[in-house]
Amino acid sequence: MNDVRWLSEAEQEIWRAYMTSSVAFQAHVDRQLRRDSGLPMAYYEILVRLSEAPGRCLRMSELAVASLSSRSRLSHAVAALEKNGWVERRPADADRRGWVCTLTDAGFTALATAAPGHVTEVREKLFDVLTPAQLETLRDISRAINAGLATACAEAEVEAEAACSPDPADSEPC
Fold first, then answer.
1. Is residue 168 one of the residues assigned to a domain?
2. Would you call 102 helix, strand, or coil by DSSP?
3. pLDDT tens-digit profile of 80-109?
């Protein structure tokens, strides 16, 4: 472990501040969504991604990537959203190996109902507390972090795809 580049005291302070704010912000937004609309943040994100997709539908594999969900977590979330009548899942027409998830009209209505409170919280707790220059810096920092993770995320996606089963009886369809 002699080759480990340990964090300096200042770097540790930055890391902890970042983690604390990131986790606290995510938890706050999740609490607000659950309280006001009964939706956990992960479900809201799935509905948003579907609402923005052409025809309000995505392959499950694409939805997992877009919503930053593992396939297992996405499968469970989609099952819960299906029970509410907010999404429908069906085999993909083109190859019958994959699955497609579609946002229903009821799901779009649930999203439209939840969105104003969510956007208000994001605006008040993120945008209103930072200056325009800080927001630009935050955007740049976020893009740099995402770029730095791109290779690791792509490798994880390939591993997940290899573990994916086309059998609808399995818990993680493609």
1. no
2. strand
3. 999 999 999 999 876 667 899 999 999 999
